[in-house]
Design brief:
The protein is α/β, with parallel strands linked by helices and 341 residues long. 36% of the residues lie in helices and 21% in strands. Strands 5-4-1-2-8-7 form a six-stranded mixed beta sheet. Strand 4 and strand 5 form a beta hairpin. Helix 2 packs across helix 4. The longest helix has 56 residues. The two termini are 59 Å apart. About 19% of the residues have low confidence.
Amino acid sequence: MAKYLGQNLTCPQDVDSWDRASTAAKCVTPNVYHCLKTSNKKLIETCLEKTWIQPGMCPEYNTNLDMLDVDECQGTSNECPDVTYWSNDVYQYPTCLQKTTQTQDSNNTIVIDMQTVSPNNTSTTPDSSDLDIQTLLPYIIGGVILIALVFVVVLIFILCRRKRSRHKEYRHDIKIEYSRREHNPQEDLINQDAVNGNNLTNGDSLDAEKRPFIDHYSDVSSPAPKGNITVYVGDDSDKIAVAYEHLVYENRYDKCQFVKDINEFKADRWTKVYFIQDVFRHVIHSSDIDKMRGALDEIYLAAGQQPLSMFILEMPLTLWTKHSKYLQEMPLFYDQHISFV
């Protein structure tokens, strides 16, 4: 807030004049009207948040930091504040607001020269403490910035170390999961069916498991929501493993299903991510793809009925290069689902 009020400006000295000045200032909450002595011994009117001032102290506007500060009261014990008070109640202590002569700076901010009055003469005296503060201020700010930069660098280093450690842990977990499912696929299917609520016994047939989202839908051309089907095409197993790591980490609190044999694919509403791996390893001719078409259509239908789940497949680049036109006759392999790695 900056407003020119005339050549003989003084801060309000009583509650009525203070309230009138406050109304004219139109400060926006939480800021309120203040008329204060500045750190370079001038007066200024501005809008600031009020704060508590300790006994024996006067509120002061720090022009270097553009904020409210305090200074020791220079009056007698009877003139200086003897209780804690709000900064915008400074008019109660005139010794904190001496009579001044006003000027106006280039920004049209109200600035008033503070003069020291004595019985014989009036003179303006510089304060050496303010000169010291102004000299040291750049060094103080530089030191604070340097400490902040060191803190940020250390924090980034720690976060990178933790992230790298977590990636190693999850890659190890994925390898264990691959190994377990390779050596014990029957056990995994039994566990999955138990989750679905079928409670199969050893004598039951796993092929009798019901597919909750597929049995009622036969239209393969029904559109699947974009984003929940991804086919990774490439021969870089490390990049694919990294992609799997991120997906496992992002869905670490949800169920993930790993499928090594496409005929073992079973959709269930509790699975958040389906990893369908190495199902094309035996494909040589287009006739081999025809044998898989029914299962691939089931995956596409399941993706349409489970828009919040993700269906991840991987395919060698050589197979895609050779059979891409034939594969793209199926909606599962439309361009928007293909990601080259």
